[in-house]
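quick q for whoever's on today - can somebody do inverse folding on this one?? i tried earlier but teh output was garbage lol. tokens:
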């Protein structure tokens, strides 16, 4: 015999109220399912032209941005208000989800230890870093192991070039203590810019030889496809944010010299790598051993020193000691310096210069190289091509401009004498401080008084006593050697 349970009995069995039992019996839907669908609260502002105007545009040009569609609609229908833009963007997004074409998909990869290292350059101009009070225009070369996350960075003063890549990559590999089996970079389009076909082929050959030296297989991502280098593109942002935070904590973005800034970057990378020390140590065991020595990380070229007291290389004029006029120098061109040699003999190292804006020639000038000639021809200073670069400090340039108010002849003669004094007495910095004081007091420098001030003090010169040995001592030595020979 079956007994049909009544609502009160069923409610008691389910531990709910009788009222809930009757409500469920009358309508078993959930409360959220009983709410009627909310209709529009205002008229659809797109109903008149979405199907007739917007959809044809989206079909004809699938990559068209919603803002361009909106601007075109406002051109066709001036009555459309700006407040409709967000509605249009949401409607286009929904239409593309239902009717749009296929989009590119990024396939996440599993990175094996020791398999891949990646290189790239990133701009650093927005951080406002300065060296000795001058804004430093530079980039960072950034290397990273895809598996463990080991990172290395190197400050690059010029553009993206093979020399910068070779120097930065080798610094990273020797700091790491091993080499991955594959090295990936971008398409090197910046390094190839403005090169002819032969130069591009040579650059490709040199890059392949660099990877071969370390046993790495070279690879490149497709031009314009940044996510193919994603294991380093995203860390670019993390590194730049870490540098920005460190600059804020430091309280200043100005550094006394370039080496201080490079040490600052190294300290940040050391702390970042310390957080991944266990993974980096594990991956080091899977890396290839390094070769016995580094390979070439500079561009080998040559230059002839002209009668102008220097040579021009890559649209930059460099001064050298005048004894080298007429000689052909071998030049090792690095990213931040030039090493000059005659044959295999090293001569000196110069700071690398860069061309000016709009392709104007740059100048790297040391007044010590030409001051002896300027003493004989002081008026040559007036219209000298590299006159502003000749002054070692700002105080000398300002003093020259102040003296030109008296006469050009006096300005040239006085500045040449001041530079000679700075060279002969090795007092460039102290003399610049005195000149700054004269400028602040609106006084002209007295060269004679300055020569007296920086002249050697006889009271501080050491007294040297030379005691000559008597000649009889030499006779004694001679007799001794003669006796031993007998």
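ok took a stab at it. sequence:
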């Amino acid at each position: 015999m079956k007994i049909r349970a009544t609502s009160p009995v069923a409610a008691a069995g389910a531990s709910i109220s009788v009222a809930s039992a009757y409500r469920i019996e009358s309508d078993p839907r959930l409360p959220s399912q009983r709410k009627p669908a909310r209709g529009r609260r205002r008229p659809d502002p797109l109903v008149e032209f979405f199907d007739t105007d917007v959809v044809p545009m989206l079909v004809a040009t699938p990559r068209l941005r919603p803002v361009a569609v909106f601007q075109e609609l406002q051109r066709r229908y001036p009555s459309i208000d700006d407040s409709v833009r967000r509605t249009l963007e949401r409607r286009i997004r929904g239409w593309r989800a239902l009717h749009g074409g296929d989009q590119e998909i990024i396939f996440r990869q599993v990175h094996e230890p020791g398999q891949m290292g990646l290189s790239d350059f990133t701009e650093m101009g927005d951080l406002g870093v300065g060296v000795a009070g001058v804004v430093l225009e530079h980039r960072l070369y950034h290397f990273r192991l895809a598996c463990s996350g080991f990172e290395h960075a190197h400050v690059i003063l010029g553009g993206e070039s093979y020399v910068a890549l070779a120097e930065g990559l080798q610094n990273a590999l020797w700091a790491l203590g091993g080499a991955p089996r594959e090295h990936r970079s971008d398409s090197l389009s910046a390094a190839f810019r403005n090169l002819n076909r032969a130069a591009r082929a040579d650059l490709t050959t040199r890059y392949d030889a660099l990877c071969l030296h370390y046993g790495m297989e070279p690879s490149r991502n497709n031009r314009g496809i940044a996510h193919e280098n994603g294991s380093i593109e995203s860390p670019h942002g993390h590194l730049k944010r870490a540098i920005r935070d460190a600059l804020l904590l430091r309280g200043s973005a100005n550094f006394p010299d370039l080496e201080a800034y490079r040490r600052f970057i190294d300290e940040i990378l050391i702390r970042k790598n310390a957080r991944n020390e266990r993974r980096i140590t594990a991956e080091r065991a899977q890396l290839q051993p390094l070769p016995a020595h580094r390979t070439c990380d500079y561009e080998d070229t040559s230059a002839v020193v002209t009668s102008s007291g220097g040579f021009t290389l890559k649209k930059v004029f460099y001064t050298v000691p005048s004894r080298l006029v007429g000689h052909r120098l071998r030049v090792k061109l690095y990213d931040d310096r030039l090493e000059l040699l005659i044959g295999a003999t090293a001569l000196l190292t110069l700071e690398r210069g860069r061309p000016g804006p709009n392709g104007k020639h740059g100048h790297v000038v040391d007044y010590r190289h030409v001051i002896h000639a300027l003493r004989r021809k002081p008026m040559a200073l007036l219209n000298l091509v590299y006159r502003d670069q000749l002054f070692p400090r700002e105080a000398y340039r300002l003093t020259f401009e102040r003296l030109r108010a008296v006469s050009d002849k006096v300005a040239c003669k006085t500045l040449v004498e001041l530079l000679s004094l700075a060279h002969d007495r090795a007092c460039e910095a102290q003399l610049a401080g005195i000149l700054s004081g004269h400028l602040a007091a609106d006084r002209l420098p007295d060269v004679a008084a300055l020569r007296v001030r920086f002249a050697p003090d006889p009271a501080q010169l050491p007294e040297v006593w030379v005691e000559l040995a008597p000649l009889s001592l030499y006779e004694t030595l001679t007799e001794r050697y003669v006796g031993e020979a007998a």
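fwiw The radius of gyration is 38 Å. also The chain has five domains: 1-35, 50-96, 116-284, 299-364, 367-460. so keep that in mind when u check it
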